[in-house]
Amino acid sequence: MKKILVAFDGLKFSGSTRDYGIAVAKQNEACLVGVFLEDQTYHSYSLYDLITKEGGGLHTKKRHLEKKDEKTRAAAVLNFEKACMSAGLNFIVHKDRFNAIDDLLKESLYTDLLLIDYSESMVNHPQKLPTRFIHELLPGVQCPVMLVPPRYRPIDKLILLFDGSPSSVFAIKMLCYTLPAYGQYPVEIVTVNSTNELQHWPDNRLLKEFMNRHLPQVRYTALKGFPETEVVELLKYEKNVPLVVLGAYNRGKVSRWIRESMADVLMRELELPLFIAHAGR
């Protein structure tokens, strides 16, 4: 039985992450581990709230607000537990309370897949996508990651972004090994050639040998132009709800076109789940 982590900020509980986690775990017969992240410097209140709240001294106000945060986090854990029990899942709850990013990176070493909302920030003010927390997480994570949007929609297709680089191949392999049940969905593999190149597939024979044994019902799509533009346009008009698979989030290791920025572009432009895995961590 595989182990799948779903990471939550208990102060801003993501129902979408919960629903994606439950769906993935059920389809792939996995144990679902809810990791509830805390940080010593993170609260729902600000210094301004402490100064302006009426009644009592500063210490009393702070204690009152901390208790409120404790109740919010406890309600989030209960929400997760009830949903897992209702779905008949094998599940575990972890409460990581020291440093959110360090704790989650350590957890990732001992799991098969991590799911997290791509708007997760672990701060109490809005941030542009991708958030600083996600930017810190992705280069150092020790397992494949599924970044999920704030709104849950059931996945019913796979779109694999491919350029022949080790990272793009590794991401496809990790999808096949980690989520074998997703092989039932329609599969489309996409490459992008520059406008002055002939249409071609890198390592065409080897790619097809591998795909025929893992995802044989695959459609091959070759586009021309700039990858960030062409891929976004393709996905904007996609009628299904695909899981988009890509590699190369390593800092300093940039593939020919599925660059470090591709995931950032997709997070900003589309509300689709992304499966990211990179070799050579």
What's the N-to-C terminus distance?
A: 24 Å
Q: Which regions are unreliable across 5 or more consecutive residues at pLDDT < 50?
A: 250-260
Secondary-structure-based class equals alpha/beta
Biggest beta sheet summary: 10 strands, mixed
Strand order of the largest sheet: 3-2-1-4-5-10-9-6-7-8
Overall pLDDT, averaged? 88
By CATH, the architecture of the largest domain is named: 3-Layer(aba) Sandwich
Just give the CATH class of the largest domain: Alpha Beta
Rounded radius of gyration (Å): 20 Å
Number of domains: 2
Number of strands: 10
* CATH superfamily annotation of the largest domain: HUPs
Explain what the structure shows:
The protein is an alpha/beta fold. It has two domains: 3-148, 3-Layer(aba) Sandwich (Rossmann fold); 157-276, HUPs (Rossmann fold). Helix content is 40%, strand content 20%. It contains nine helices and ten strands. The protein has helices spanning 15-27, 47-52, 58-87, 100-108, 132-140, 166-178, 204-214, 227-236, 260-269, and strands at 3-9, 31-37, 91-96, 113-117, 145-148, 157-161, 187-193, 218-224, 242-246, 274-276. A ten-stranded mixed β-sheet has the order 3-2-1-4-5-10-9-6-7-8, with helices on both faces. β1, α1 and β2 (31-37) form a beta-alpha-beta unit. α1 (15-27) packs parallel to α3. The longest helix has 30 residues, at 58-87.
